[in-house]
UniProtKB/TrEMBL annotation:
The UniProt record lists the keyword Ribosomal protein: no
Chief place where the protein resides: membrane
Protein family per UniProt: Belongs to the PRPH2/ROM1 family.
Record protein name field: Peripherin-2
Organism this protein belongs to: Panthera leo (Lion)
Membrane-traversing stretches: 20-41, 101-122, 255-275
BP terms from Gene Ontology: cell adhesion; detection of light stimulus involved in visual perception; photoreceptor cell outer segment organization; protein heterooligomerization; protein homooligomerization; retina development in camera-type eye
Subunit-level organization: Homodimer; disulfide-linked. Forms a homotetramer. Forms a heterotetramer with ROM1. Homotetramer and heterotetramer core complexes go on to form higher order complexes by formation of intermolecular disulfide bonds. Interacts with MREG. Interacts with STX3. Interacts with SNAP25.
Database matches in Pfam families: Tetraspanin
Lineage: Eukaryota, Metazoa, Chordata, Craniata, Vertebrata
Topology class, membrane: Multi-pass membrane protein
Subcellular location: Membrane; Photoreceptor inner segment
């Protein structure tokens, strides 16, 4: 028994074809939107690629770009099919391919749904790549004279100013790296020598942060050196006083920014997916309604359209059987090829 059977007359078939034609062209516009969102996300990720550890984060934008292009292609083709469906002579050339096209549409909808899920689930991998990338970026902050790394100081400073953040997890991360280049250290100074000797790795570590960590909203002039030394500043206690630095780490700031972007893109992609599913269902009804016309010469006759020719369980069993037959036929062909090669080897 057919699933969700609906009766169609000529007027209903024409309205269905016209409605699907309009929906397909609207879906082409939606595909352009998905493509644009993927392109925008890719540009935003490339802007901060210096503080990201790998290219895994580009999977989502690349997928959105690809699905946007495929959406435009498939829906343009479906719009043409719906337009030709109003003319029996033009529809005849599409008839042999329509069932295969519907299968491709179902696969496309499945992939689109998975891409939408990836937009929501990518937060974990993005967090790890930001953690490693920011750590390396802070380590190379001082290498202003090293080719390939001379831009890192500017990148980190602009990042901290734009996102109002400091360090990887917080401003104390700068206490663990030498962010001042040896070029600007006076090695004849006793203080510099003592600090370098006191460190196992021979690094010049200070309880200070770069200027880009300063919060301009603070009424007090920025304190960026000797942050843990209360006696170095008047009326200052680093444990109780609110520091005039950005408190939030840059990993949390970037994660929040990109997370909100991808959540919005995931929601848009899910809406487009629902729209695509409704178009695929409409195409299936149009296909079966035109196939079940008893007299093709009588355009006014009634026909029936359905979603599945059999029930869900019967359709699933038939699919499994066809897959088993396909597997057996491939096995027989392989055995036949082996048997043909055996006499030649003898």
């Amino acid at each position: 028994m057919a699933l969700l059977k609906v009766k169609f007359d000529q007027k209903k078939r024409v309205k269905l074809a016209q409605g699907l034609w309009l929906m397909n062209w609207l879906s082409v516009l939606a595909g352009i939107v998905i493509f644009s969102l993927g392109l925008f996300l890719k540009i935003e990720l490339r802007k901060r690629s210096d503080v990201m550890n790998n290219s895994e984060s580009h999977f989502v934008p690349n997928s959105l770009i690809g699905m946007g292009v495929l959406s435009c292609v498939f829906n343009s083709l479906a719009g043409k099919i719906c337009y030709d469906a109003l003319d029996p002579s033009k529809y005849a050339k599409w008839k042999p391919w329509l069932k295969s096209y519907l299968v491709v549409c179902v696969l496309f909808n499945i992939v689109l749904f998975l891409v939408a899920l990836c937009c929501f689930l990518m937060r974990g991998s993005l967090e790890s790549t930001l953690a490693h990338g920011l750590k390396n970026g802070m380590k190379y902050y001082r290498d202003t004279d090293t080719p390939g790394r001379c831009f890192m100081k500017k990148t980190i400073d602009l990042l901290q100013i734009e996102f109002k953040c400091c360090g990887n997890n917080g401003f104390r991360d700068w206490f663990e790296v030498q962010w001042i280049s040896n070029r600007y250290l006076d090695f004849s100074s006793k203080e510099v020598k003592d600090r370098i000797k006191s460190n196992v790795d021979g690094r010049y570590l200070v309880d200070g942060v770069p200027f880009s960590c300063c919060n301009p909203n603070s009424p007090r002039p920025c304190i960026q050196y000797q942050l843990t030394n209360n006696s170095a500043h008047y009326s200052y206690n680093h444990q109780t006083e609110e520091l005039n630095l950005w408190v939030r780490g840059c990993r949390a700031a970037l994660l929040s920014y990109y997370g909100s972007l991808m959540n919005s893109m995931g929601a848009v992609t899910l809406l487009v997916w629902l729209f695509e599913v409704s178009i695929t269902i409409g195409l299936r009804y149009l296909h079966t309604a035109l196939e079940s016309v008893s007299n093709p010469e009588d355009l006014e006759c009634e026909s029936e359209g359905w979603l599945l020719e059999k029930s869900v369980s019967e359709t699933w069993k038939a699919l499994l059987e066809s897959l088993k037959k396909l597997g057996k036929s491939n096995q027989v062909e392989a055995e036949g090829a082996d048997a043909g090669q055996a006499p030649e080897a003898g």
